Amino acid sequence: MTGKPGAATGGLYLHILVLAIVIVCELIGIQRLSIGLGTVIFLPILYAFALGILLNPAIFKASAKFLSKDAVKLSGAMITVAIMPFIAKFGTTVGPQISKIIEAGPALVLQELGNLGTILVAFPVAVFLLKMGREAVGATYSIDREPNLALIADKYGLNSPEGAGAMGVYATGTLIGTFVFAIMPPLVHGLGIFDVRALAMSCGVGSGSMLAACTGGLVAVVPDQKDIILALAAASNILTYATGLYVGMFVALPLTEWLYNKARPSERKTA
Prior knowledge:
The protein is mainly α. The protein contains twelve helices and two strands, in the order H-E-E-H-H-H-H-H-H-H-H-H-H-H.
């Protein structure tokens, strides 16, 4: 016995471990923490995400005894498959709420421009505070989900500084984005500034896991508006996939390039 699990055995252990994590997280359930300005909602998906990270063989060495490298790769590939029923369920909520979605039409379409906020907020921090180089272009022009990575890969290549910046944000978003998207919506809703429909639209950023965490947090604080939250979030997510690439290609990325050339004229990239 080598102590290294085979592919089949590692896959079995992976499924058992995932099932155990799900059971534990569901038993813990939704927890609420009041912090004055609002309430932080802790969902089972957060516990599952945290436990999954902690039990990763790269972090918790004991896990390597029963989880093979092939099993770890399989778990990454299965995320897309596992999220598909969730996305399909979201699709079924759009039809019954189509009249309310049409009412929110202009706001739903124009909310895509809100993604330019990543440039306004993150670019000055990256360039002037963190002193980043051209990595700042890839890191700040969007929230760097899959369509945005594809654009950077096509224009610069992922081995470029811009590609490194985009991959860094993608990895960071994958690790902590779910936590942020689960905690922020209930807190922002507690401020009483934004309509719940606007917050629902903000959940659709082109990431299935972030969409799930965001809508879960909103539904937990406004359960009576569950259907409209899910419908607007789903419609927003679809529009982000449909229009986000073009906004990034024709607006966000050229704008970020222009800002970087203005901030660092000595490093202007020539075609």
